[in-house]
From TrEMBL:
<protein>
    <submittedName>
        <fullName>ABC transporter permease subunit</fullName>
    </submittedName>
</protein>
<feature type="domain" description="ABC transmembrane type-1">
    <location>
        <begin position="57"/>
        <end position="241"/>
    </location>
</feature>
<keyword id="KW-0813">Transport</keyword>
<feature type="transmembrane region" description="Helical">
    <location>
        <begin position="64"/>
        <end position="86"/>
    </location>
</feature>
<feature type="transmembrane region" description="Helical">
    <location>
        <begin position="122"/>
        <end position="142"/>
    </location>
</feature>
<feature type="transmembrane region" description="Helical">
    <location>
        <begin position="182"/>
        <end position="207"/>
    </location>
</feature>
<dbReference type="Pfam" id="PF00528">
    <property type="entry name" value="BPD_transp_1"/>
</dbReference>
<dbReference type="InterPro" id="IPR000515">
    <property type="entry name" value="MetI-like"/>
</dbReference>
<feature type="transmembrane region" description="Helical">
    <location>
        <begin position="98"/>
        <end position="116"/>
    </location>
</feature>
<keyword id="KW-1003">Cell membrane</keyword>
<feature type="transmembrane region" description="Helical">
    <location>
        <begin position="219"/>
        <end position="237"/>
    </location>
</feature>
<comment type="similarity">
    <text>Belongs to the binding-protein-dependent transport system permease family.</text>
</comment>
<keyword id="KW-1133">Transmembrane helix</keyword>
<keyword id="KW-0472">Membrane</keyword>
<dbReference type="InterPro" id="IPR035906">
    <property type="entry name" value="MetI-like_sf"/>
</dbReference>
<keyword id="KW-0812">Transmembrane</keyword>
Amino acid sequence: MRGTNAALGAAGLAGFLALGEAVPRLGLVKAEFFPPTSRIAGALGRELTDRAFWAALGDTLTGWALGLALAVGAGVVAGVVVSVVPYLREATASTIEFLRPIPSVALIPLAVLLFGTELRSVLLLVVYAAFWQVLIQTVYGVQDVDPVAEETARSYGLGTWARVRHVLWPTALPYVMTGVRLAAAVALILAVTAELVIGAPGLGARIAVAQTSQAVPDMYALIVVTGVLGLLINVGARTVERRALAWHQSVRGEVAV
């Protein structure tokens, strides 16, 4: 089954690449705006031999990784505290619902005013966008704790931290891992967007330079790189999720009776 799925995926990718080669060569679109796949592949090969490309890739991954780590740490801690402390969930609900829908890109002027084109501008946007993914999932996970299990732990004399470790955390972990996986994708989007708009060092800034200099094949090659990077991050996040939840029935494939 896995072999069949892999073959179908490869066939779909090959068909997409062939379509990208044929459309501009048949004159359906102008090649100067949408170059054939072969030209994009050639530009990608040139990028891979350029040290500046690898430096830009490192800058993007640095902003993504640091921002994601800060967002996950803050989101998990805040989600647990908000859910465990009495009345704090109700006291913060309106504030969370007000701040969460604000698009991170709307904070770009603030980031530029505070930090210019430094890495801290990218981190501000990445952390703000990814934080809510983790926070909301953590809150949902904590609220899903079985009250009977909670009362049983109390009756056995478990303290607060023991209940968090043995009762709350195992229940919330599947939700947290979902939030981390979503946050990883959002963090990459915001990292590239910040670089593209603000001009912070990274793949986004390199795409902007290629666009303004009319290096269209190079621009598409860099866009392909960001797509591949997003795919690898998603696969990596799913792998970590499966390993962290190896005990959970959703991973083991068991059916609850």
